[in-house]
Design a protein that fits this description.
Number of helices: 4
Number of domains: 1
Order of helices and strands: HHHH
Structural class: mainly alpha
Helix content: 55-70%
Largest sheet: none
Number of strands: 0
Distance between the termini: 14 Å
Strand content: under 5%
Length: 64
Amino acid sequence: MDLLIRINRHYQELTEQERQMITALQQVDLTWGSLTSNELAKKLYVSRASIFRMLKKLEEITVN
């Protein structure tokens, strides 16, 4: 399933920080495939761990 579809379906289940990361991603013109996790974390002013936790959560809530 596409990441944006997962986000839209489960937006209310995300924490405020996760929602802010999603909003920042949508507002900034980023080429997702070309960024490393370090670069993405720097652009969003969060840790790599925060990004990975959010992605893991999106994966888990779409499986259940």
